[in-house]
Amino acid sequence: MSAQIIDGKEVARQRLSMLADRVAERKNKGLHTPCLAVILVGDDPASAVYVRNKKIACEKAGFESRSYEMPSETTQDELLALVDELNGNPDVDGILVQLPLPKQINSQAVLERILPHKDVDGFHPYNVGRLVVKMPLMRPCTPKGVMTLLESYGVEVEGKKAVVVGASNIVGRPQMLELLLSRATVTICHSKTRNLAEEVASADIVVAGVGIPNFVKGEWIKPGAVVIDVGINRLDDGSLCGDVEFETAKERAAMITPVPGGVGPMTIATLLENTLHAAELHD
Ligand code: GUN
Fold first, then answer.
1. CATH: 3.40.50.10860, 3.40.50.970, 3.30.470.30, 3.90.226.10. Which one for 30-114?
2. How far apart are the C-alpha atoms of 146 and 208, rounded to whole Å?
3. Within 13 Å, how many C-alpha atoms sit on residue 35's CB side?
4. Mind listing the pLDDT tens digit for each residue in 144-163?
5. Disulfide-capable partner of 162 in 130, 184, 209, 251 (CB 3.0 to 4.6 Å)?
6. Active site residue 54
């Protein structure tokens, strides 16, 4: 039987509409409009698309968005100076530096410069640490968006065996923590994992975020599992595909996210949720 498709676009639309209502309510009460500052350095086309989508979502939901575009030769000091300025600007609630950054810039140094309560990406070690000790302040957008999707579709996480494929700072590691916070038994797989197929086959919930097209084979999926595909890979013909072999996986899974239209829209909705949260911290 074919899996139920998890419609991230629809869940994100509902979340954004709820956020828009909350922002309108703030405005009625005379509270300031939540403001997200997005910094894009260089001319990576995929990053430009992501940043544009974030801006459009902000405008639709009544958030203020400020964009800062810097050339690819920007130095680390120049970027840090802009982060400092935004940290000190009381009108700015959230700061997002789009990754990847050009190679002359140490990304970690930049992420650590953002004040933790303005770190709407949740990448600052302070925010990562708070997630580790079960007291999150800002939760990384993609893993939090995945948890929202699971909840929206009534997927029980507690006690389930979850396997995360990929151990990046943006997706895999925080996803492992989110699932653990929801009391799953979690295994995280990476390039040195032995018997990846066996690990995936043991999972009730699979989250794939490796950035390699069709890396997780459909035949590895346990019948009845829930499959969440975080990958967005552009193929030579211009089409998008995920990290999971969708067509075969969907014949085994109970539920599966499509690419596009699965996790991607949830990342943006969650970013706005975090920006509103940052504004509330600031009130
Ligand atoms: N590049 C790819 N995904 C992300 C993300 O979630 N946040 C930032 N800042 N950059 C990214």
1. 3.40.50.10860
2. 11
3. 15
4. 999 999 999 999 999 999 99
5. 184
6. yes
